[in-house]
Design goal:
The complex is a heterodimer. Chain A is an alpha/beta fold. Chain A has helices at 2-19, 21-31, 33-54, 67-85, 94-100, 104-113, 128-140, 156-160, 162-165, 204-216, and strands spanning 117-123, 152-154, 178-184, 191-192, 227-234, 239-246, 251-258, 266-268. In chain A, the strands form two sheets. Chain A has a six-stranded mixed beta sheet with strand order 2-7-6-5-8-4. The longest helix of chain A is centred in the N-terminal third of the chain and has 22 residues, at 33-54. Classes of the chains: A alpha/beta, B alpha/beta.
């Protein structure tokens, strides 16, 4: 009889844990070492899953595409996940993008036709402060070339218009604010000396993400000797933002120019997708 | 009486639980399951056999959770799982096991009272003689047993081979845990902090690598060469094993597939003989593969398999099709899977046909490549940015140049270069094509086949051209403002729009096109077909400017073997289209009827096999602004 009631109590606890999984999880964390096994199992499982992602199984999301394009997309997602993990963000799965309307065949064709294109999963709507946090976290990484004091600088007029510059581009499918488009990833834009009207342009978050994806992989930053127009205008449509990397201050900068400006180093990176 | 009461209770339980799950169900006689318009039709016969009411209800809910609910709630996880199965068909037993483990865990979390009945369902399906299975399957059985009832699983897993025990002990030690069930519970438990895919990847990392290691041991014991042929062999054997263990849940006392082989061989070790355990023997390989296929068919049997046709509406075409099709090792195992096979086969047959007709497709594509080339003009311009070398002095910068030279700059940026600027030369060229095909009963045979080929050539080539245009625009960085759209309408008594007017072509449309044209029936009501074409082209009441602002040429091509239900009405529709500027061609197969009714653009064709050629010439001629001479 006593054994039966003990067994029933165990069952009740198990039932409560199953019904209130989130609460049980919090409780486990609060209880510390004894229940800490669950946390360490969690961590071991996450490590094992990450290892699986790095292998062939990671390419499953791109099944049906050519090996080289699948590899480029996989690499882009790995890089984006590295960036996102700096501040605890989660990149949507590739399948979520396909379901949201991103045309993977179109992306694959574009990747075939242009080697410079890079898939850039990008969060929109983070705000200037969180982007600054992301850049600071990147700067703290060993070997980072970014300045610890000001890894990213936004001009005041850009900060004033940040909400609109940080929004999901029109007609682009998005998953919880994340978009997936291809951005030319050459050191400088392919088309230079053009004014803002020669759009469409990459968005501010897309350029920041592209820059961080490269930097975290130990690659040289883009726009060291050029500027890239960013999508969106402000001040009654008279100004638009431009992106650059300043070698002297070891930071990424975003400031503004009149939309008619067509300086020889100012160019466009036309997104695909 | 008691039996009737039991069945009524079962039906009531299933209906109530399905409502809680948010899955509309319809209980029917028989043992097949289907999903139509979101409602799951459940055949109870196979489920209720040899089971108590609770277990039968739990089994139905488990299958619903594993299939319909998963596709709706965790679509991304299902897509990933199908893609992994396509990548390596040999993993199917492990993937199906993960499906079931998730279903058991999640269903138990939502309905804890189902824990015991679910455990009974799982244990009933598990083979009692687990030690006689191959090591990789023993591993999967051990995991299933532990997930459903960890305590009862101990005696079950004791019968597994030492290699499987070793893998279980490795699993048990993960992250400092002490029980296998603990690790599985953490991996399977609903977790708001992780997405469905992340949880799936964690389970995949737990289950699949040991499964593959054990498969390697199995193979080495049997002298089977490892390689790409594994997957193919699995597929072949899946078909061979049809009837060996399909149907609803098997009774635990039923003989397992592969048992015959178990008696036949023993490699000399003390452990029990396993299916196909013969060295260097093709028979060993076959039995091994049959055993794997039989495992999924019996232990993990489901009337709604992962990539079945039923899930077409829920998953993107390419994935839902490929997941269940020619790469699925379990294809053809049970009657309920035949629908999925037919769909997959039709797509495979379609692709074969595309390969055969590729010369025609390429010819048509070349015509359009000419149009694209004509559309791009070049003009000579001067570069915007002066450089130290160039053809023309930059007069607008003379002051700067002089001051730079005075300041000692040896090579000032003083010259502009000549460049070629590519741009669009004209705007016209965009065209909408509507192909209208008669599929009345009289079209049966060669005419229907020829019409299907013609549709295939037209739609595939124009979809390819659309991609060419996009690639060209991308490469040149200019908008050619050129767009091709195609629509396909088949008709008998009614008109069916198989493909609405658009530039793209997806697998779903390909499958429909392949099937619809080859299903002749009914009479020849070409007036409704022309009306449907007018609707697609927005002619008549819907007339308006195209939303993208492009000027478009509009062409309708109707293929029929003659006759009409209502010639006066068809004539009115034809005139309406022509009055709106639409070019309408009529191709009559072995009839002059259309030559008369569609004059001056009616054509008679006596050999239906020439239809693709005629269609090709028609598009070529219409595109190049020449009249077709008959």
């Amino acid at each position: 009889m006593e054994q039966k009631s003990a067994s029933s109590a165990v069952e009740n606890v198990r039932l409560a844990r199953l019904l209130f999984g989130e609460l049980a999880h919090d409780l486990d964390r609060a209880l510390g070492d004894d229940r800490g096994v669950g946390v360490s199992v969690d961590r071991a499982l996450d490590d094992a899953a990450n290892e699986i992602r790095e292998g062939d199984a990671g390419k499953a999301a791109f099944v049906g595409l050519q090996e080289s394009e699948a590899g480029r997309l996989l690499e882009a997602f790995h890089a984006a996940r590295d960036v996102a993990s700096l501040v605890g963000l989660t990149v949507p799965e590739p399948e979520e993008f396909w379901l949201s309307g991103v045309d993977r065949e179109k992306l694959a064709r574009a990747l075939i036709s242009d080697r410079s294109l890079v898939a850039v999963p990008t969060p929109h709507g983070l705000g200037a402060n969180q982007w600054t946090e992301v850049f600071r976290a990147a700067a703290r990484r060993p070997g980072s070339i970014l300045s610890l004091t000001a890894p990213v600088t936004f001009a005041p007029e850009v900060l004033g218009a940040f909400t609109s510059l940080d929004s999901v581009p029109a007609r682009a499918p998005s998953v919880r604010g994340w978009t997936l488009r291809l951005i030319p990833g050459d050191e400088s834009p392919a088309r230079m000396g053009v004014n803002y009207s020669v759009g469409p342009h990459a968005t501010l978050p897309e350029m920041l993400m592209l820059q961080l994806m490269r930097l975290l992989r130990g690659k040289a930053p883009v726009d060291q000797r050029s500027f890239t127009w960013l999508q969106g205008t402000f001040a009654d449509g008279k100004f638009a933002a431009r992106h650059f990397y300043d070698e002297a201050s070891r930071g990424v900068g975003v400031n503004a120019r009149e939309i008619g400006n067509q300086g020889p180093h100012l160019g466009v990176r036309t997104p695909v997708g | 009486m008691a039996e009737a009461q039991g069945e009524a209770q079962l039906r009531g339980t299933i209906m109530a639980a399905a409502t809680v799950l948010g899955v509309p169900v319809h209980l029917v006689d028989g043992d097949s399951w289907d999903v139509l318009d979101g409602v799951v039709s459940i055949g109870l016969d196979g489920i209720t056999a040899n089971r108590d009411t609770d277990a039968a209800a739990a089994h139905v809910l488990l299958l619903l959770w594993e299939s319909v609910r998963e596709v709706r709630v965790a679509r991304v996880r299902r897509m990933r799982r199908l893609a992994l199965a396509e990548q390596a068909p040999g993993r199917e037993p492990a993937l199906a096991t993960i499906d079931r483990m998730f279903a058991v865990s999640e269903l138990t979390a939502v309905m804890p009272h189902l824990r015991d009945p679910l455990a009974r369902v799982i244990y009933t399906a598990l083979p009692t003689n687990v030690g006689e299975l191959s090591r990789s399957l023993q591993w999967l059985c051990a995991l299933l047993a532990t997930t459903s009832d960890p305590r009862a699983a101990r005696s079950y897993t004791d019968a597994c081979s030492p290699e499987v025990q070793h893998e279980l002990s490795r699993l048990q030690r993960i992250g400092g845990a002490t029980e296998v069930s603990h690790v599985l519970r953490v991996a399977l438990a609903p977790d708001s902090a992780r997405s469905h895919v992340q949880r799936f990847e964690r389970m995949y990392a737990l289950v699949v690598p040991p499964f593959e290691r054990l498969m390697l041991i199995d193979h080495s014991h049997r002298g089977i060469e490892l390689g790409a042929q594994d997957g193919e062999a699995l597929q072949e054997q899946a078909v061979l094993s049809e009837g060996s263990g399909s149907g609803a849940a098997r009774d635990a006392n039923d003989p397992e597939p592969g048992e015959a082989g178990a008696d036949a061989s023993n490699d000399g070790e003390t452990e029990p003989a396993r299916a196909g355990d013969t060295q260097d023997s093709p028979e060993g390989s076959d039995l091994f593969v049959a055993e794997q296929a039989g495992f999924v068919a019996s232990v993990l049997d489901t009337p709604l398999p992962a990539g079945g046709a039923w899930s077409d509406e829920a998953l993107p075409d390419d994935l839902s099709a490929t997941g269940a099709s020619d790469t699925d090792p379990m294809a053809g195992l049970s009657e309920t899977r035949h629908t999925g096979d037919a769909v997959a086969t039709s797509l495979a047959a379609y692709r074969d046909r595309v390969r055969e007709l590729s010369p025609h497709i390429e010819h048509l594509r070349e015509v359009w490549q000419l149009i694209i080339a004509e559309r791009i003009g070049a003009r000579n311009i001067l570069s915007r940015i002066p450089t130290p070398e160039g053809e023309v002095l930059d007069k607008s910068s003379l002051v700067r140049i002089v001051s730079e030279v005075s300041a000692g700059v040896k090579r000032p940026n003083a010259y502009l270069s000549r460049q070629r600027d590519l741009r669009r030369t004209r705007r016209d060229g965009s065209t909408d094509y509507v192909l209208v095909i008669d599929r009345s009963a009289s079209m049966l045979g060669a005419p229907a086949e020829a019409a299907a080929d013609a549709a295939l050539i037209m739609l595939e080539s124009l979809a390819a051209v659309e991609r060419d245009i996009a690639a060209e625009e991308r490469a040149l960085g200019i908008d050619l403002e050129l767009a091709l759209r195609t629509a396909l309408i088949v008709y008998d008594t009614e008109a069916v729009v198989v493909k609405a007017l658009s530039g793209s072509l997806d697998d779903h449309t390909r499958r429909r096109m392949h099937a619809e044209i080859r299903a002749p029936r009914g009479s020849t009501n070409d007036s409704v077909a022309l009306e449907a074409a007018a609707h697609e082209l927005r002619v008549g009441a819907l007339q308006e400017r195209p939303s993208d602002g492009l000027e478009r040429r509009r062409v309708v091509i109707l293929v029929s073997d003659g006759g009409t239900d209502d010639s006066a009405r068809a004539h009115t529709r034809l005139q309406g289209l022509r009055a709106a500027g639409v070019k309408v061609f009529g191709i009559g197969i072995r009839t002059s009827d259309l030559v008369t009714r569609f004059a001056p653009d009616g054509i008679r064709l006596d050999d239906p096999t020439l239809l693709p050629l005629v269609l090709e010439e028609l598009i070529r001629a219409s595109r190049l602004d020449r009249e077709l001479s008959q």
